[in-house]
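residues and backbone:
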Amino acid sequence: MSIKNIAIRYGISTLGLVLVALGVGISIKSNLGIAPPSCPPTILNLRWSAISIGTFTWMMHIVFILLQMLLLRKNFKLRYLMQIPAAFVFGYMCDGAIWLFDAIASPSTNYFIQILLSLLAVVLTAIGIKLEVVGDGWILAGDMTVAVLSQVTKTRFSTVKVVFDIFLVVITAIFAWFCFGLLTGNGSTVVIREGTLILAVLTGVCMRFTDPWIDKLVRPIVPKA
C-alpha cells in the first residue's frame, strides 16, 4: 500500500478518534453521566486530579492490551501492538476535548440541555466509531478486548460488549462509593447516571442510521487494503 493510501486510511481513523473524544468531552460537560468505557478514567481523575483523564485512559488501555496478551498468548498478533500508539493518541485527544469544553462553559445544570448534550455525544460517538472501522487504521484496545473475550468465550460480540460495559460501570461505582460515599461520582461531577445508559444503549441504535450515510460518503474514498 502506498504512503498516500496509508495516510488516507489513518486520516479517516484519526478523524473518528477525534469525534469519539469530543463525545467524551461533551458527555462530561453534560454532567448527566458518561459512556461506560470512560467511567473508570474519569472517577480515577476525580480521586487523583493531578493525573488527567486522558492519561488514565491510555493507562487503562495498556491494561486491556496486557489482558489480551494473557488470553491470546501465542495467538497475539504483532499488528495488535498498534493499540499502544492508538491508546496514547486517543487519551490525549480526550484531554484536548475536555480542555476545550471546560474553556467554553461550566457543566450544565439544565436537565433539557443535559439530555441534548448526551444525545449529541451519542451522535458524535456513533459517527466516530464508524469512521474508525471504515478507515481501518487505529485499533482501540477497548473494542479489541471485547473482540478477544468474544473469541475466547465463544460468545456473541454484542453480548460480551454489554457485559464488559456493565463491568466497567460497576467497578467505577464501587470505587466512587469507597472514595466519595456516592455511586454516581464525587458529588460535583457526575460519572454514572442516566446519561451513561443513554450512551450505552443509543449509540448502537444511532449507528443504524449514520452507518449507511458514512458508507455512502466515505467508504468510496478509502483505499482497499
